[in-house]
């Protein structure tokens, strides 16, 4: 039997036959069915039949608004021995979802998907979760990106397992997240300015100091000493501060101001463990960051950002403090 799951704004519960009218109200929209790969519903009776068949599968949930109690979409977990599109293994699953057009752009489906990811990894102990989207459905891709999934592969000549409304063969792109990647995301917290205590700032400065000395070998002790007050102020004032923890100890952080990544530093033990990519993808996909400045002499960092899709659009001879350390102004390439 399906669990009842809750988020800040949603309840996820099994579909009920009394939901048929609400389901029909949203599932009759041909745009939704086409994007998701199933025929739009033609009547309340059609919706009732779907509830009794497709939506009766384990781990299939009606997405309910807490404010109204109305089902406005659906989200579910599909396993290797049930209806699915990805080529999943025994200890993996695929998540599918949709929401009624009036609720697009409100972050409700990412909220539901994050809830199901927790269900998959924390409760069901799965090793990997997949999601697929058809070519052109960039809204669905962005949901996956916001939830931490990354692109894996593309398949052509695909037919929807739910019955494509036009019977066409399509191109489907698959994204995935592993249990380890999900656990990394769960260890990252957004720290509001009022929660940035002196003790926390001091611990983050320790992370920064060790990281800078390991990665910025062109800086002297004097340079680092002069930069410390600037970094301390930035940690207190930056708009968005995300901190990764190992138990109660900070092991890395990223600062975002508007659309710009202002800082990214990791403890030495986190180098090469995927934390940098996880932070940047979170900044890009959830906080819409597209800009970053990199010291030209920090060639590893410049290469890191290029690998993640950033490119240099301007070079300055001096850094923002007027010191003779050339800065590369980088911008994320538009992949849409």
Would you kindly provide a brief summary of this structure?
The chain has 336 residues and is of the alpha+beta class. The protein folds into two domains: 180 residues, Gcn5-related N-acetyltransferase (GNAT) (Aminopeptidase, 3-Layer(aba) Sandwich), CATH 3.40.630; 146 residues, Gcn5-related N-acetyltransferase (GNAT) (Aminopeptidase), CATH 3.40.630. 34% of the residues lie in helices and 29% in strands.
Number of domains: 2
The major beta sheet can be summarized as: 8 strands, mixed
Count of individual helical segments: 10
Distance between the termini: 40 Å
Low-confidence stretches: none
Description:
The chain is of the alpha+beta class. Helix 1 (20-27) packs across helix 3 (44-52) and helix 7 packs across helix 8. It has helices spanning 20-27, 30-36, 44-52, 108-123, 138-146, 179-186, 198-215, 221-237, 275-287, 299-307; strands at residues 5-6, 10-14, 60-65, 71-79, 92-99, 128-134, 150-158, 170-178, 188-190, 240-246, 249-257, 260-266, 291-295, 310-316, 327-332. The strands form two sheets. The chain has an eight-stranded mixed β-sheet, with helices on both faces. The chain has a seven-stranded mixed β-sheet with strand order 9-10-11-12-13-15-14, sandwiched between helices. It contains ten helices and 15 strands. The model has no long low-confidence stretch (mean pLDDT 93).
